[in-house]
Design brief:
The chain is of the alpha+beta class and about 400 residues long. The protein has 3 domains: about 150 residues, no CATH class; about 160 residues, no CATH class; about 55 residues. It is about 35% helix and about 20% strand. It contains 12 helices and 13 strands. The strands form 2 sheets. Strands 3-4-5-6-7-9-8 form a 7-stranded mixed β-barrel. A 4-stranded antiparallel β-sheet has the order 11-10-12-13. Strand 4 and strand 5 form a beta hairpin. The longest helix is centred in the last third of the chain and has 27 residues. It is globular and about 60 Å long.
């Protein structure tokens, strides 16, 4: 059984490139490996005060296959940002070939072991295909970062072999270096929660293979014991009053509160089940915490959505609605958000700032899915929605 489980894990995390199969999970740094640079080294790269330019240069014979071929295949390229150049990075697309504008993954250590860029192993350039405003990811991730550890997101124009490929959301990836920057101590167990269409926290029995590698997709310490996953699901199902023994409840409440504010239909309490989250188990605390991810479906929902929408369908969220103390604390966190980043004047100013910064790049984007008129119209749509949501949340937390 252990051999079968190991094979399943490897199948879940193998990626392919022109040098053959290669595991894509994060490895725990070897003893003596220096920690990644502090956040200050990334401040310029994720500087929100400017629109960035990222340039990728591929061999001309690879360029068309990279842009138009199957997704997930890595090609060697040169990465340039400002006057900083990194040779032999791996680049791959993350969307289907029929999309003229495709998300791009840049992996700095794909071909050169331990190569990084300002401490980053990987960055994502999100094509924002489902976002007419071109700003939902960045706007929403900023809300999360005001409340809890979360990835950075800014905007960048992407050039491939000097051709302008459009405006992208330049995003920090949730991986081992990010965890080292956020938390002290050794890297723990990171899981990407894979969408199942149901509750990923549903009890399926005590066998580990029922949870790992699917839907708990391991990204670090893959071949170690993951018994804490079974313990988590067991407690959520059979003894939810002990949630605080296995989960960072404050982080959970923060995530749910921000999700409620930004109208996230694809988050932990998504309309089709839990989605777009990472879990991180920290052995030194014995508890899990949670990160948001992929927020381009936010700010596009009816403003009256319940703050407890779908909670009873998700075992990780249900205790927050059912326990009076957690319910009260959850509402308090929403109130704090309403008095800060969700205050209409603050949201409107943020939307206007991002709009003005990216407008010309959106207009010039030759591969955008939506029109420039759609982009312009969503500016006022989102501002009006933010105001309506603010007013509705005030009513709901007063009930």
């Amino acid at each position: 059984m252990k051999r079968l489980w190991t094979v399943l894990v490897l199948l879940a995390v193998i990626g392919c490139n022109d040098d053959g199969p290669r595991p894509i999970q994060d490895e725990v740094p070897a003893p003596g490996t220096p920690p990644p640079p502090p956040d200050a080294d990334l401040a310029a790269f994720f500087d929100e005060e400017r629109l960035h330019d990222v340039r990728l240069t591929l061999n001309p014979s690879d360029r068309d296959d990279f842009m138009n071929g199957p997704h997930g295949i890595f090609y060697p390229a040169t990465f340039t940002w400002r006057d900083e150049v990194v040779e032999r990075v791996g680049v791959a697309t993350g969307d289907l070939p029929e999309e003229p504008k495709r998300t791009v993954i840049v992996r700095f250590d794909q071909y050169e072991s331990n190569q990084t860029f300002r401490g980053l192993r990987e960055v994502k350039l999100d094509a924002q295909l489902s976002d007419p405003s071109s700003m939902r990811d960045r706007l929403s991730m900023g809300m999360f970062r005001a409340r809890m550890p979360a990835p950075r997101a800014v905007h960048a124009r992407l050039f491939v072999n000097d051709e302008y490929r459009g405006l992208f959301s330049l995003e920090e990836v949730i991986d081992a270096p990010m965890l080292q920057r956020r938390f002290a101590g050794d890297v723990g167990f990171l899981y990407r929660m894979d969408y199942t269409g149901g509750d990923v926290y549903a009890w399926q029995g005590s066998e580990l293979w029922r949870y790992v590698p699917f839907p708990f997709g391991p990204r670090t310490r893959v071949e170690e014991d993951h018994g804490h996953v079974v313990t988590l699901v067991d407690i959520l199902t059979h003894d939810p009053g002990r949630l605080g023994d296995v989960f960072d409840v404050e982080a959970l409440l923060e995530l749910l509160a921000v999700d409620a504010a930004i109208l996230n239909p694809h988050g932990l309490t998504g309309d089709s089940g839990p989605d777009n989250n990472y879990l991180y188990y920290r052995p030194e605390t014995g508890r899990f915490t949670i990160f948001p991810w992929d927020l381009d479906a936010t700010w596009n929902y009816v403003p009256t959505r319940s703050i407890f929408e779908n909670f009873q369908a998700v075992r990780l969220a249900a205790p927050v609605e059912n326990d009076p103390a957690l319910r009260r604390r959850y509402k308090e966190k929403i109130a704090e958000i309403l008095d800060g980043p969700m205050l209409p004047s603050n949201v409107h100013a943020r939307i206007d700032f991002i709009y003005e910064q990216i407008r010309d790049a959106v207009y010039a984007d030759p591969y955008k899915r939506y029109s420039s008129e759609d982009f312009d119209g969503y500016r006022d749509f989102m501002k009006n929605l933010a105001t309506q949501r603010y007013e509705n949340l005030r009513q709901q937390i007063a009930e």
